[in-house]
Every structure is written in C-alpha cells, then in structure tokens.
Amino acid sequence: MYKHQTYEAILSRMLDRVPGDVDKREGSIIYDALAPAAAEMAQMYVEMDIDKNLSFADTSSGEYLERRTAEFGVTRHAATKARRLGMFSGQGGAPVDVPIGSRFAIGELTYVATSKITTGSFVLECERAGMVGNQQFGALLPIDYLDGLVTAELADVLVPGEDAESDEDLRKRYLATITQQSFGGNAADYKEKIESVPGVGGVKVYPVWQGGGTVKCTIIASDYSVPSATLIDEVQTLIDPEVNQGEGLGLAPIGHVVTITGASAVTINVATTLTLATGTTPGMVQADVEAEVAAYLLSLRTSWKDQQSLVVRISQIEARILNVSGVVDVTGTTLNGTAANITLNSDEIPTLGTVTINV
C-alpha cells in the first residue's frame, strides 16, 4: 500500500513545495534540512505497511497471528514429546523390567520410562519436545546403573512428537474454523477435535458409515505415516470409548457410535531405466533417486487428508528423478511391476519399497 512512499519520492514532494527562487540543490541548506525528515517519514511508511499486514490473518505472522486467531478461539499447537517403545532384556535375552522414571540416552536425546506395556516393554517419552524424538532408533544407554539390565533398545514410534505449529498451518486451521463452522458432531467438528490430538496429522470423516448414528474416522500420524495401535486407541478413547460406545462419554455426541481406524500403507516398488552421464554409475545415483521418490511419496501423504484418494503418478516420479545430478534421461518406469499410475483407496497412503535402476 505504501510501496511508492520512498525516501526519494517524499523528498521530491517536499522540495517541490519550496519556492523556485531558493537553492534546492543537494548540499544546500534547504536540501539538508528536509532530507533527514524525508528519511524518517519513509521509515514510518515502511513500519505502517508492516503494521497493516500484521493486522490481517492472511499476511500476519508470529505473535500477531496468534493474537488474531485467538479472537476466534484458535490457538497455536505447542510442540509435543514423542512416545516410543523401549525394549529391555537381561542375561540370555530374557525380558526384564526397569523402574518407572528410569532415563536412557541415545545420541543427544534422553528418554524416560513412563509406563509398562508388558514384561520388558515400556513406553518411553522423549524429554525434548518436537519431531526430533521420532528419528533415532537402536541401542539405549541407561543414565543410571540398572541391575540386571544387559540391553536396551529404542524401537517403534507409538505417538509421534510434533514441532510447534507453523504460521502457515495455524493460518489454514484458523481459516478452516471460520469458513467451516463446527457444531454438535458435524464433520467439521470431528475434524477439529481429532486433529487437535497430539500425534494426529490428519483425519477423514465418514458420516453414516454403517447406518444412522455411525461414524468412521480414519487418521494419519503427524509424521504422515501409518498410526500406531497406541495412537488409534488413544483417539478412540477420547472420542468414543469402545466399552461405552454411543453413550456420549467421549467427545462424540450421545447416540454417535464412532470407530477410529488408521490409514493403511501400500508399498510402492519402483523400477526405471536411466541414461546416465559419462562416468556415472547406478550406484552413484541410487541414494539420490531413492530420496527423490521418497520425497514425492511424502508430499502425497501430506495431502492425504484433503484428497478423496491419492494417485501415484509415473510422470511425477520421472520428473523428480531427472533432478538428480548425473541422470540424463528416464524411461520405462514401472510401479509395482506395471507401467501405469496407481490409484489408492481413500484410506490408503503410499510408502516406498524398492527402487530398481536399470541402465
């Protein structure tokens, strides 16, 4: 709005107001008197433009976006801590228990045992919030000595940790809230409640799934993977506990029988024939090609909740492979053995299997 209010434009207008018989050249008394004021006014216009943008949700950011969305009851989701499966064994590989509150380290992260699943299997919570808690796997080191413990392993992600909600995600959620009013168990209400659960990355709602009063909600984990049974159970208990379904003891309205399911994975095996640059071997591009295909499948999974169904397209895969340094051309790409796109069911998400490179 104020982009034309530059220092030069302001100073020119100010000098135009000075009588023509006065010396207005650069370095003159009147020029030197007006120039600092023009610079301050230009800065003022810059700050006015920033303030204007911060006052509207579509251009705001940071604290000011939070204050804007809070007016409609939409607050930024804070970072959450990952919950993982910890497996512990003693002499001869026999499972052993560890005290609740025991702390373990892997790399720069620490995890604490919060609850027991079965003998030798515990829920471990990362002490650092965010997605970083989802990434490490393997041997754990006890921070304090535990008698009888021989091996400790950090295994499955039970509930993914999430980073603090980004400005763009907060903005989308805010706009969805004011354009799709949630009320009394409508589809928007289920989406709003379920997507606010830590570890949930998206949900599809199927009203009247098996007749009147039944609802199916299919979720995806916040890291856009298949949700664990633990996460599905937590959402089920929160929305409509299985032992008292339909009685309104969860967040679902009385009379709604809600079934929570998880998105299912479809493995995508890719085979392709590449023309490589001189001196380049398949082994030199294998990792980069796999990374490009994996990134494409991840982009599909991130859009899953907003799509009726996902389509894995050969053209998109070939276009991304062409971005790999050393690849000159791509031909004959197949998905799961066929030279055709793969259309998934509404509750399916693609995951990377094998990538075979022919030359």
Automatic annotation (TrEMBL):
Residue stretches spanning the membrane: none
Residues in Baseplate J-like central domain copies: 182-261
Superkingdom per UniProt: Bacteria
Pfam families: Baseplate_J_C, Baseplate_J_M
Baseplate J-like C-terminal domain sequence ranges: 268-358
Protein family per UniProt: Belongs to the Mu gp47/PBSX XkdT family.
Name assigned to this protein: Phage tail protein
Organism listed in the record: Tumebacillus algifaecis
